[in-house]
Design a protein that fits this description.
By secondary structure, the chain is mostly beta strands. It is built from no helices and 34 strands. The protein has strands spanning 14-21, 27-33, 52-53, 57-58, 63-64, 68-74, 80-86, 92-99, 105-111, 131-137, 144-150, 156-163, 169-175, 192-198, 208-214, 228-234, 242-245, 248-250, 253-254, 260-263, 273-280, 283-284, 288-291, 298-299, 308-309, 312-313, 331-337, 346-350, 353-355, 357-360, 362-369, 380-388, 391-392, 397-401. Strands 4, 25, 28, 29, 32, 33 and 34 form a seven-stranded mixed sheet that branches. Strands 17, 18, 21, 22 and 23 form a five-stranded antiparallel sheet that branches. Strands 24, 26, 27, 30 and 31 form a five-stranded antiparallel sheet that branches. A hairpin with a 2-residue loop joins β28 (346-350) and β29 (353-355).
C-alpha cells in the first residue's frame, strides 16, 4: 500500500529532469529554467547572462533570454535552501545531478552554448551543434569549482552521473551520429555510449587556464591560424606570460580586463587538435584540448558580448546603430575575426541574401552592399552571417537597415 504524500512544492519556471539526495538528506533538483524561475541572492548566476534578439525583425526589436540550466537544493520539507541558473548564449539543461561527502554539487547535461562558463576545463567545444558538460559547485551553489565541456566532434548528451566516496564523478552519455541532425535518439544510427570518470584532480595551480574564447564571438570555438583569441584565467604576469599551442609559445598582449589576447600561430594549421596551456613566470597552468579548423569566423559586436548589434560602419564612416541605420543599397563595413590569411571561400549573408564582399585592407574588415530588401517597416534588423572554409559565424548578430 502506498503511503501518504509528506510534502510537495512548486518552483515556477523550473522544469526538473534530475533528482538526487545529498548526505544530509536534502533534495537536489536539476533541469531547465524559463523566465521567472527564482534564484538565491548568493547564487552563482542569478539571471540570464544573455538576452537574444529575435531575428529577422521589423519595427520593434524583441529580446528574449535562452533556456538556462537550473538546479536547487531543497530541505526535507521541500523548502528551497538555494537555487541558481547556469547558462550561456544558447540552450543548456541539467540531466544529471549528485553530490560528494562535503556537499559539493555535480551537474551534467547538454548545451549548445559556446559561452557557457568554464573553469579549469579539460577541453573545448568540439561539436558543431550540441555537446555535453560536467561542472562542480560548492555546497551553497554560489561558486563554480570547475567546469568543462565533454564529447568529441559529434553531438553528445550527458544522461547520468554518480559520485563515489573519494569524490570521483563518473558520467555517462550518448554520442550521436551528426548525419541525422538533432532529434529523437531513436532516429540516430551509429551512435556510441560514452562512460568516463573524472577524479578530484590535483590542487588548483597558482596559474590557471579557464577558457580560450574567440575574441569576437566571446564563446569557445575551434582555433584557427591567425585568429585572435582571449585567454581567461588567473595568475598571469604581464611581463612573462606565454600561451603555448602544443610546443609553440606565443607572446600575448594584455587586454583591458586582465585576460590576455593572442593570435593563434601558423603552426596549428593542418592539425585536428592542440593542447593549450599558459606559462607565467615559469609556472605552468593546467592544460586543455582545443579543436582546430581552417577558419573561426566571428563578427564583432558593439557591446563586446558576441550577440546583438554588429560592429559595423555605415557608408559615411559612422557607426551603424538603431538611431543611425544603413540605407538599402549603401555599402557597410563589417569588423571580423577568424577568417584567416588563407585563400578561403568566404561568403557573407545579410538577412536571407548572399552579398558580395570586398576586403578592406585585410580580412578583418570587409565591405558589403546592403541588399534592397522588401519590407513595409521603417527599420529592419538584418542578421549577419559569415562563412569561411565551411565554418559559420555566431548567430543573433544584426545590422540595422532603413
Amino acid at each position: 500500500m502506498l503511503g501518504q504524500t509528506t510534502a510537495s512544492t512548486i518552483i515556477a519556471g523550473f522544469s526538473p529532469a534530475a533528482l538526487a539526495f545529498d548526505a544530509a538528506g536534502n533534495l537536489l533538483a536539476g533541469g531547465t529554467a524559463q523566465i521567472g524561475a527564482i534564484t538565491s541572492s548568493s547564487a552563482f548566476q542569478t539571471g540570464s547572462r544573455f538576452w537574444l534578439p529575435s531575428l529577422p525583425a521589423e519595427g520593434q526589436l524583441v529580446y528574449n533570454p535562452p533556456v538556462d540550466a537550473y538546479f536547487a537544493k531543497l530541505a526535507p520539507d521541500l523548502s528551497i535552501l538555494w537555487a541558481t541558473r547556469f547558462g550561456g548564449e544558447s540552450a543548456t539543461g541539467v540531466s544529471a545531478i549528485g553530490s560528494d561527502a562535503d556537499g559539493n554539487i555535480f551537474v551534467g547535461g547538454t548545451t549548445t552554448a559556446h559561452a557557457l562558463p568554464e573553469r579549469l576545463p579539460l577541453q573545448g567545444f568540439f561539436s558543431p551543434t550540441q555537446t555535453g558538460y560536467i561542472a562542480k559547485f560548492d555546497a551553497q551553489g554560489s561558486q563554480m569549482l570547475w567546469s568543462t565541456f565533454v564529447g568529441d566532434a559529434r553531438p553528445y548528451s550527458v544522461s547520468g552521473l554518480v559520485v563515489d566516496a573519494a569524490g570521483n564523478v563518473t558520467f555517462s552519455g550518448q554520442t550521436l551520429d551528426p548525419r541525422s541532425g538533432i532529434g529523437s535518439p531513436s532516429l540516430y544510427t551509429g551512435s556510441d555510449i560514452l562512460i568516463a570518470s573524472l577524479g578530484p584532480g590535483d590542487p588548483v595551480p597558482s596559474v590557471t587556464l579557464d577558457a580560450v574564447i574567440n575574441t569576437a564571438s566571446r564563446g569557445t570555438t575551434a582555433l584557427a591560424p591567425g585568429a585572435l583569441f582571449t585567454v581567461r584565467g588567473s595568475g598571469f604576469d604581464p611581463s612573462s606570460t606565454r600561451v603555448w599551442f602544443d610546443d609553440d609559445p606565443v607572446t600575448p598582449f594584455q587586454s583591458a580586463t586582465g585576460d590576455v589576447v593572442v593570435r593563434a600561430p601558423p603552426s596549428i594549421a593542418g592539425k585536428n587538435v592542440v593542447m593549450v596551456h599558459v606559462d607565467a613566470a615559469g609556472i605552468a597552468s593546467n592544460s586543455m584540448v582545443m579543436p582546430v579548423a581552417v577558419a573561426a569566423p566571428a563578427v564583432y559586436t558593439v557591446d563586446e558580448s558576441g550577440v546583438g548589434q554588429a560592429a559595423v560602419q555605415n557608408e559615411d564612416g559612422s557607426a551603424n546603430s538603431l538611431t543611425n541605420p544603413a540605407a538599402r543599397g549603401s555599402t557597410v563595413t563589417i569588423l571580423l575575426n577568424g577568417v584567416g590569411d588563407l585563400p578561403l571561400n568566404v561568403s557573407i549573408t545579410l538577412g536571407a541574401q548572399l552579398v558580395n564582399a570586398q576586403v578592406v585592407g585585410d580580412m578583418t574588415r570587409v565591405s558589403v552592399r546592403v541588399p534592397d530588401i522588401s519590407t513595409q517597416s521603417p527599420l529592419l534588423f538584418c542578421p549577419v552571417t559569415v562563412e569561411a572554409g565551411g565554418v559559420r559565424s555566431q548567430p543573433a548578430v544584426f545590422v540595422v537597415v532603413k
